[in-house]
């Protein structure tokens, strides 16, 4: 329900406005309480001031095992809890192992306390020191290097390189969790956005781009897994066509990311439009490769066709980043 208040002048020069009593009571605000104001363009956010710097959360894990428990810990982390208490009547050995694996797979977490019925995990990183820009930049570098190495592993049938690509997917996933955590924190409190030095809309754009980069890394991993199933060398004409397709797909992702990071709106718009227009040409090139695959036996053609699809989809994700960049560069209402 929207409530309105009239702005008044006290002391001849100070503007004052009252706050809703129900909201004040629900948030423990009374006479003498301090509140914090955060200006954001034409809006002014007000929040109760608190001395508590760490956000704590507790989760009953009695009926959670394996993947469910892993996802639960990750969800608490992404939601922004700094201290996570996991409780049960008796925490099993398997649960403790899963908790340790989850802790090691997330940036900044460590087990702070461990008893028969409780495990406490704490985030050691200071949110104000995290950079969503640096995290997304790192994701870009890793995801594109994974895609490059996946194509190289395929054309050279290099099993070790393919396995390395698969392992690096964990690095991208960890960064994706960090970006999601930062973004959700900025939604929950305006203080987080102020500490980051970025508007929440920009944080949303970065989070959207990070999601696309995470998908690029997933398709690089998929290519690596498929490579491990291929026993005979890829025909030279197919290998060359795949390299060209990869080069064009990578350019779409790079142009989209450059557009996103560019502050000058006209340049961002130019780069983003070029990236989006390139996607159609890549789809046509992918169809041409599919024609080449018709000359191969069905089993090989199917595997290579999946790889062509993954490279083509990576370009689509670059096009999605470019679309986000266009929205970011558009005039603000």
Overview of the structural elements:
The protein is an alpha+beta fold. The chain has 3 domains: 8-48; 56-127, 2-Layer Sandwich (Translation Initiation Factor IF3); 128-329, Up-down Bundle (Methane Monooxygenase Hydroxylase, Chain G, domain 1), CATH 1.20.58.220. It has 10 helices and 8 strands. The protein has helices spanning 21-26, 66-78, 93-104, 132-156, 159-188, 190-196, 200-227, 236-261, 265-293, 298-329; strands at residues 8-10, 14-16, 35-40, 43-48, 56-60, 83-87, 109-114, 118-123. The chain has a 4-stranded mixed sheet, covered by helices on one side. The chain has a two-stranded antiparallel ribbon with strand order 1-2. It is flat, with a radius of gyration of 25 Å. The mean pLDDT is 89.
What is this structure, in a nutshell?
This protein has 333 residues and is an alpha+beta fold. The protein is built from ten helices and eight strands.
């Amino acid at each position: 329900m929207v409530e309105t208040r009239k702005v008044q002048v006290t002391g001849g020069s100070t503007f004052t406005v009252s706050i809703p009593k129900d909201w004040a009571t629900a948030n423990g605000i009374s006479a003498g309480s301090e509140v914090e104001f955060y200006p954001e363009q034409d809006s002014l956010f007000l929040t109760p001031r608190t001395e508590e710097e760490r956000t704590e959360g507790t989760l009953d894990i009695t009926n959670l095992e394996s993947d469910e428990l892993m996802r639960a810990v990750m969800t608490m982390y992404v939601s922004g809890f700094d201290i996570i208490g996991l409780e049960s009547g008796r925490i099993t050995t398997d649960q403790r192992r899963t908790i340790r694996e989850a802790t090691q797979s997330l940036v900044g977490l460590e087990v702070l306390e461990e008893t028969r019925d409780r495990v406490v995990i704490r985030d050691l990183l200071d949110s104000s020191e995290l950079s969503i820009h640096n995290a997304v930049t790192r994701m870009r570098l890793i995801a594109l290097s994974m895609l490059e190495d996946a194509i190289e592993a395929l054309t050279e049938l290099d099993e070790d390189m393919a396995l390395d690509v698969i392992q690096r997917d964990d690095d991208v996933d960890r960064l994706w969790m960090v970006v999601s955590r930062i973004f959700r924190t900025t939604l929950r409190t305006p203080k987080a956005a102020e500490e980051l030095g970025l508007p929440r809309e920009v944080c949303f754009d970065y989070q959207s781009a990070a999601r696309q980069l995470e998908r690029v890394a997933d398709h690089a991993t998929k290519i690596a897994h498929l490579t491990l199933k291929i026993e005979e060398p890829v025909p030279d004409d197919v290998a060359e066509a795949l390299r060209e397709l990869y080069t064009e797909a990578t350019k779409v992702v790079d142009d989209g990311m450059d557009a996103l990071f560019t502050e000058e709106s006209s340049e961002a718009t130019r780069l983003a439009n070029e990236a989006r227009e390139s996607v159609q040409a890549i789809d046509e090139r992918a169809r041409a490769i599919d024609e080449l695959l018709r000359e191969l036996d069905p089993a090989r053609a199917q595997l290579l066709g999946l790889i062509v699809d993954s490279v083509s989809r990576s370009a689509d994700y670059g096009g999605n980043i470019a679309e986000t960049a266009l929205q970011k560069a558009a005039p603000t209402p």
